Amino acid sequence: PDRGLAFWRFFMRDTAPREQAQAETKGFFKERSAQRKQDKSAGRTERVNVQIPSDLIFFWRVIGLLRGLCTSLAATVPLMELLAARAKIALAATFPQPQHALRLSPPPTGSHSHLASRLHAIACRLAASNEIGGGVS
Fold first, then answer.
1. In the chain, at which end, N or C, are there fewer CB atoms within 10 A of the end residue's CB?
2. What are the pLDDT digits (tens) for 95-107?
3. Is the model's pTM score more than 0.85?
């Protein structure tokens, strides 16, 4: 799981100018190669992916094209921020209001500090007054 997360963190990193992107890619794959050698010497077998969904392949291709375009233009773009903002909007639009989270934060259980109780009350009051929108506009 850690290596999978490391892959996605690498894949979804901000775009960068060509030299920086090449250095990051070289470093990532050098580390992966060392991990494979370590696994082999420890007797662990390689992971095998049976089938990759076509939607995921399409997503990879789109991100690759975006990354290539940004590299050509020497533009630094925060891919995760862009995708997260659009995902929040899409999720909010997909589900009707009654299916949204019922609470801004989980109900207090057991003994909490006075500060935690005050913060919870403030957050609930702001959510009820529609003064905060959870990042979706």
1. N
2. 777 666 655 556 6
3. no
CA 50 – CA 40 distance, rounded (Å): 21
**Do 61 and 69 contact (CB within 8 A), yes or no?**
no
Q: Express each pLDDT in 36-63 by its tens digit.
A: 899 889 888 777 777 888 999 999 999 9
45 is written with which tokens? 């077998």
pLDDT tens figures, 107-123:
656 556 677 777 777 87
Q: What is the 3-state secondary structure (H, E, C) of the chain?
A: CHHHHHHHHHHCCCCCCHHHHHHHHHHHHHHHHHHHHHHHHCCCCCCCCCCCCHHHHHHHHHHHHHHHHHHHCCCCCCHHHHHHHHHHHHHHHHCCHHHCCCCCCCCCCCCCCHHHHHHHHHHHHHHHCCCCCCCCC
